Amino acid sequence: MKNHFNKIILLLSVLMFLQYHSNAQDKMPQILQHFQADKGSLERFYVIDMSPEKRGRMISFYKEYLGKIKDLSFKSLSQSDKVDYLLFKNQLEANLNDLSIEETNYQSSKNWVDFAAVIYTQEQSRRRGANINAEQTALSWNKLSKEIQQKISELNRSANIAKASSMHINRTIRGYKKAIKSINDFYNGYDPMYSWWTAQSFKKLDSSLDVYQQAIVKKTDASSNQKADQSGIVGNPIGAEAIETSLHNAFIPYNAQELIKIAEKEFAWCDKEMLRASRELGFGDNWKAALEKVKNTYVPVGKQPEMIMDLYNQSIDFIKKNDMITIPPLAEETWRMIMMTPKQQLVSPFFLGGETLMISYPTDEMDDDAKLMSMRGNNPHFSRSTVHHELIAGHHLEGFMNDRYKSYRSFETPFWTEGWSLYWEFELWDKGFPRNAEDRIGMLFWRMHRCARIIFSLNYHLEKWSPQECIDFLVDRVGHERANAEGEVRRSFTGGYGPLYQLAYMIGALQIRALKEEVVGSGKMSLKQFNDAVMKENNMPIEMLRALLLKSPLTEDYKSQWRFYK
Predict the structure, then answer these.
(1) Nearest-angstrom CA–CA distance, 181 and 205
(2) Left (φ > 0), alpha (ψ -120 to 50) or beta: where does 517 sit?
(3) Of 119, 382, 475, 508, which residue is the least packed, with the fewest Cβ within 10 Å?
């Protein structure tokens, strides 16, 4: 009986040990899943951006989750959970910092926005369907329209508004417009008194807010910290301090000047290879003449989709032949093409990808010069790099695998997203995918472009270069068609991308290549095993991916330290 009892005690101890370690490993995925669900609920409820109500609620929400993870025993977590812990902590702290900046901008612009705060109160009541005093609402909206006119007069007499404050004001005005539309959509036609009283006051206030927004923009242009030029592109250079913060949040232990030096070194390699290809084609050191020859290999009108399909087949066959990565059959089956609109091509002069490949090629409504620039810039040799970048094993495979492996991770960074796709351009180059000098020039053009992105985007955000200088740099140093260079710069600074996005292509690819050399070069994994492993960890800073694959020691206060560029 005693032995039987001891066996039961031993079994219970083992079960408790296993349960403890199982719970330790399961904690972070569950916390992250709950966080994403909770955040979604809050963002669907507090829909008015820039409102003090939403800002205050999100601050308390992020602090709540910081408290939850700080209650965990970091040392007892699995390696995977430690990585998630550090990335989540970094994300929450970055979010709180963003909201702190938002609060600072609010305080500096209160005079221009607080007068209309009654709109927030009206929308709060509407959310739960409260009876509305239609007459009072109409009177308050008419009053606000008059106050906007007074604010515009005051604005005309005031000093210029700082760029950051102006952006906050404009987003606040958009929030006001969204709130009164929400109120109007809810009551109009359903509440007869509301419809009768507010038909004119709603239209007047909505229109007045538009006029006010335009006045703010006009007042801000002269105070922008962007260098004046003739490009017509107006962005928002963030400055050295913000760049440093962004790099810290992305786990990049280099400063802006160090990254520019890396770009220059990679550019030097590209220059050497470009001259070698130019000489093979008989152009000597005149590589731009060789580039012109390659640009003029564009396919006839209407044949671009056919050309892209042929390049896709070549690249997918090459990847399979060299057994470089596991490709799920469904990923091959479900990608598709669409044609990009002329408007979209103004900011995306080259095709984009993912599950849907968007083809950038001229339409009949473009003028002849624009048609020719588009065709030359999307020639088969240039596109030899970008088809597998956009599809497999690039962006399409990324999205396919992210949906299926560790989807609770929401640490998306362009250093992984774009770095992985450019890494495949490196890999296919190294294994001999370019068939001749023309192919090498086409692939080198894009590699040079990724070097140039680091240089022009950082110089712009350091407030050293204007958009026009960035355009000229792409034309002179890389050989872009001018319209395509303008589209690239416009996309970089007004397309909604973060300030580090453009430099993340090359830097992320160099990180993944350095990690591959550590893992595959040491014999820990084959190339295929490495590539498959990356795809099953989901999107994250590459230094944290390295910690997972190499099982590197991690501490609760871990800071970025991986100097990946040799």
Answers:
(1) 10
(2) alpha
(3) 475
